[in-house]
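Input structure tokens:
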């Protein structure tokens, strides 16, 4: 996706896809679901722009063929272009049907909120749902069909171009399985559709639709470039403004956009002005950038002036708006609002509008622990050593214009010791009265950790003291090693009667944060 020859639209789409893949690993919040919706909306608009461009290209090919009806190249160009548009249209509809099905099954979209009388630009009601599409794509094997469909569409479109020219078609329609991680192999469809909110899946399907349109566009451009003569359709010009870094811009960054005349060729003698001032032109495309200062919506008008073949001067205007927002970072503890000594505490960090590779994280004080990437989730694992009572996670990004590091946000977390586990004898973990028959069948000392947010944190006893105080007779005492009661200990339990007392004391355990001794014993009164 870093191909320097990619079109401005494709660069924008690739950028938004990077944002999408960064967000997929997050513990999704309402803000992130909103961000997915914004990405989906932007990509839908980009798809509409690609559609318009493709229609203009096809009109130019049809016009040339009409003017040169016996030209064999024109005949083939029209046939192959028409086939490309049919393949693309059918494939886009196929993925639209899947999107509509998933959205319908989860309650559709929210009511019209912007007063435009439409719902197709509103957020999905079931945006956080992770089950509907997983069931369809993984359990019902629809994902395998989707994968095959993408590959077939790519092959069918590429086949419309001569084999020795297919290398010029830069398509993103690939479904490669991700590389194995820690010996585990994951399929493409599992990575795309499993453990992922519907908002992300819907955005992904929109990206696939745009990838289809972009591949179609390259096929059409190939056949158009093979024609000779004047292939410009001059009866339907339209000014276009394409943002190259999104329409939601962090304050202090720059808003950048490509402004050009649709269907213009490199021979078009055009000038572009914004606010009365001319802007730089490159290959018929106006390059516009302005500092993003002050919050809120920013509007501007671009004016494109060009000459038709007759020499008549034509002027085209286009208004555009983008939104400047404050720099924000989303930082959240995956488990709870504290971090624990000795454990790998999962931390999620993201900055809307920036790819994961552009986000920098650190901790303060640096000597209080270590923050490392989690290859399994794409997030971070924070390990603290207990030398500080609080630790700060700091998030920064590299400014795309100056490459300078800019702080985007921070979050403070309290550092706490993992709570003490409780003493237990077999299935008995509460001191007090217990029947002799139940007590006699217990044979192992345990130290369960109850009510703790982390799963899989275990403490294993390695030493304890066993004491039986009979109602009549001499007490029995024995020091134990490991967890298992010795044979003599179990023999003593087998002889207890009503009124006897059994105690397990001085229990020492080993856990992820080291060794500790439990502060209290467990005591049973035989009933």
């Amino acid at each position: 996706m870093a191909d320097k020859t990619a079109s401005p639209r494709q660069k924008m789409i690739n950028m938004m896809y990077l944002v999408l893949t960064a967000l997929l690993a997050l513990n999704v919040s309402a803000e992130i679901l909103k961000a997915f919706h914004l990405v989906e909306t932007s990509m839908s608009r980009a798809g509409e722009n690609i559609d318009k461009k493709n229609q203009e290209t096809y009109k130019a090919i049809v016009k040339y063929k009409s003017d040169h009806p016996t030209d064999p190249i024109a005949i083939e160009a029209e046939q192959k272009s028409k086939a490309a548009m049919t393949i693309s249209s059918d494939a886009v509809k196929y993925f639209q049907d899947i999107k509509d099905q998933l959205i319908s099954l989860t309650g559709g979209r929210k009511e019209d909120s912007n007063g435009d009388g439409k719902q197709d630009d509103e957020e999905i009601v079931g945006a956080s749902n992770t089950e509907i599409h997983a069931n369809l794509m993984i359990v019902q094997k629809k994902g395998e069909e989707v994968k095959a469909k993408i590959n077939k569409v790519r092959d069918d479109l590429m086949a419309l171009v001569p084999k020795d020219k297919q290398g010029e078609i830069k398509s993103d329609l690939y479904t490669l399985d991700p590389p194995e991680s820690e010996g585990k192999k994951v399929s493409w469809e599992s990575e795309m559709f499993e453990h992922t909110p519907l908002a992300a899946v819907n955005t992904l399907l929109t990206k696939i639709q745009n990838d289809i349109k972009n591949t179609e566009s390259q096929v059409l451009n190939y056949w158009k470039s093979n024609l000779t003569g004047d292939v410009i359709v001059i009866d339907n010009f339209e000014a276009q403004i394409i943002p190259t870094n999104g329409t939601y811009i962090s304050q202090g960054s720059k808003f950048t956009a490509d402004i050009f005349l649709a269907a213009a060729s490199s021979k078009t003698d055009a000038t572009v002005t914004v606010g009365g001032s001319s802007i730089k032109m490159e290959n018929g495309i106006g390059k516009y950038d302005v500092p993003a200062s002050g919050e809120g919506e920013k509007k501007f008008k671009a004016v494109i002036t060009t000459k038709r073949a007759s020499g008549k001067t034509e002027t085209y205007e286009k208004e555009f708006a983008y939104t400047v927002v404050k720099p924000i970072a989303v930082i959240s503890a995956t488990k709870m609002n504290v971090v624990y000594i000795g454990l790998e505490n999962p931390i999620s960090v993201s900055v809307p509008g920036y790819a994961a590779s552009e986000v920098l994280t650190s901790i303060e004080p640096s000597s209080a622990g270590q923050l490392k990437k989690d290859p399994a989730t794409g997030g971070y694992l924070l390990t603290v050593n207990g030398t500080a009572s609080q630790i700060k996670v700091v998030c920064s990004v590299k400014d795309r214009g100056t490459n300078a590091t800019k702080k985007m946000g921070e979050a403070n977390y309290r550092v706490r010791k993992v709570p003490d586990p409780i003493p237990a004898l077999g299935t008995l973990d509460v001191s007090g009265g217990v029947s002799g028959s139940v007590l006699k069948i217990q044979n192992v000392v345990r130290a369960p950790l109850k009510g703790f947010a982390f799963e899989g944190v275990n403490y294993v006893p390695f030493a304890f003291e066993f004491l039986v105080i009979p109602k009549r007779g001499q007490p029995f005492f024995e020091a134990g090693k490991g967890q298992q009661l010795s044979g003599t200990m179990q023999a003593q339990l087998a002889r207890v009667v009503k009124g006897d007392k059994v105690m397990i004391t001085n229990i020492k355990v080993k856990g992820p944060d080291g060794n500790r001794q439990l502060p209290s014993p467990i005591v049973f009164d035989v009933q």
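The chain has nine helices and 25 strands. Residues 229-235 have pLDDT under 50 and may be disordered.
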